[in-house]
Amino acid sequence: MNIEQILPDTEMFSDRVLLTKAFCTYVRPILEYCSPVWSPHFKYLITKIEHVQRYFTKRLKGCWNMPYEHKLITLCLESLKHRRLVTLVYQILHGHYDTELDATFVLSTTLELEVMPINY
Residue 60, Cβ neighbours under 10 Å: how many? Predict the structure, then answer.
């Protein structure tokens, strides 16, 4: 039994804003839990994780024929891969990540992130 069979076909369940908020509240935290620890680096694993959000956005009313990137812009969402990267960079820059990579990231005067080469 899938979600379409459980939920009645009403206007409440076709509201993109409501469903997007529910997805961000209940599903995305599960996908992002401890993401810096387990963050996939193989393309097929990244695709599997991202598929959950692709599946959700594909079923929203009015988003069926849009490319995935346009759906994300329309719904004010970011890809899960991008969110994992932002979380990791934030933790490194704010000292929450125990690593020597802190010297790798430097904030420029224009508040843009610059990646410095690692010297071994």
Answer: 19
Q: Is 84 exposed, middle or buried (0-12, 13-18, 19+ CB in 10 A)?
A: buried
Confidence (pTM): 0.64
Which tokens belong to 6?
């459980």
For each of the chain's 120 residues, which pLDDT tens digit applies?
Answer: 555 554 555 444 578 889 999 999 999 998 888 776 677 778 888 888 889 999 999 888 888 888 999 999 999 999 988 888 888 788 777 877 766 654 555 655 665 555 555 554
Single-letter code of the amino acid located at 4: E
* Cβ–Cβ under 8 Å, residues 16 and 57: no
Domain boundaries, the chain: 3-115
